[in-house]
Fold this sequence. Notes:
By secondary structure, the chain is of the alpha/beta class. It is about 55% helix and about 5% strand. Keywords: Nucleus, Ribosome biogenesis, rRNA processing. Required for maturation of ribosomal RNAs and formation of the large ribosomal subunit.
Amino acid sequence: MVKHYRPPGKKNQGNAARFITRSKAIKQLQVSLPLFRKVCILKGIFPREPKKKVKGNHHTYYHLKDVSYIQHEPLLERLREIRAYQHKVKKAEAKKNPDRATLLRQRSPAYKLDKIVLQRYPKFLDALRDLDDCLTMVHLFAALPAIEGCIEVKRIHNCRRLAHEWQAYISRTHRLRKVFVSVKGIYYQAEVKGQKVTWLAPHPLQQVVTDDDDFNIMLNFLEFYEALLAFANCHLYHSINVKYPPILDPRLEALAADHYALSRYFDANSRSSAWDSQYSSLSGSGKVESQQIGPLVDESELRLAQLQNQLSSSEPGALMHLVEDVPGEDEEDNDTRECKKLFKDMKFFLNREVYRDSLLFVIPAFGGIVSWQGDGAPFEEDDDSITHQIIDRPRQDGKICGREYVHPQWVYDCVNARIILPTGDYLVGRDPPPHLSPFVDNDSFETEGVINPAEAEAKAAKEKWKKMKAHEKQHHHELIMELEGITDSSSISNIDNLSADREEPDHDYEQVEEDNRIMSLFQLSRQIRGSIESMRISRQRKKRLDDVIRQRRRNVRGT
């Protein structure tokens, strides 16, 4: 059979058939480069690295199936319609028709990412595994300033709202596990539904935005992350029978007390759910009454707003102490119970120089009650029930008796150690102990005044061994004196006192020298350590060989 001739470069096999360059993908989809990047980010499609790059190393390659997957996406057609609609707005502005341009902007089409979030994360646990970058990006934009033509104020407020809602859930359910303050920011780690979620929140400083940052790509990621975090917050709030989105007190929102407003919302929602259950049990004809009233006003939202207004600002236990059980909440594990009782029966007050948002998030997450210096606070500084006051600079006025004045690092170290540390090292004016990272194992971390159970057992075993050694020596001396016929009680008592008072050395100097040698090796590079170790082994072998030769020579001389 005659084979057909196939010219070179026309093969549709291997990498040439599986991968496509970015320029060809754009031509196939008939979109611009920014729109192509946006769709790829929203759909979770990233460039590939084929083993053999057919078109050269200077091209970006995508899988052909991914491009075909984008081609049949309804969102792509919607984005094309929005782009065509924006041309109408520009045309109206060019014709100097501001009324038509304003009307077109008001009727601008929009799109939702609900189906895309569901496609990328069919299960909620899959979404929790990818929340690390999402939370970090949202917390970053919540701290950025608004830039005209780039970052809108509405988007910053939305990021701040989503971040506070996430923190309120973590604090309410006591799911926070680790906190570490670093140069980059504050690292948090929470455990939600068995998944560890770690994110980074920037310090509350003025952020300097440079021209080198490409905000177009970051805003595309942020658009998807906002939708993902909103779905995650909605699912988590409904899991504890709390309505979403929360209805906050506008007065507290104006005072930037979002954590406090969310805590009031949780407390009011728990009371309203209890009242709803009582009302449903007492009323037998609720459906008929609701039909008579009509769907003019949502009764649940109205009742919730009334409860928030009825809550007095002088009830810190009902407002900030978020430790009440919520119906429908998952069963608590041992870590949650331990975290829930760490700051139990403790009342904190924050001075104005202290970073308020972080401590308002951390302290209630471990069972404490907290207030601050400023408007909207649940209780004032002169409250007699305050046990700890967090300050970061020396006080000019006198101190109040009955409370501890500590550095903010004391709170974070207590959280990481899961115990209440002594406050002597955290007083203002003293250098606090090093703030170690809880994300690594710090076996050498020791705190003065804190007794570790393992160390206590080791110390007790050591004392018991010393007593047994003293009794053994005493019995040995008594046997020797009995054989020699010594019956002087004074000598026996003197020997006993000497044997009892004599203590064994606490340190094995050979072991200490070996430990020092090993620790000094760790400070060197791997290559130098290897050469030193090989030299030491060769010396040991040579010493053994010399001992064997000497022993043989002695045996020969003896014969």
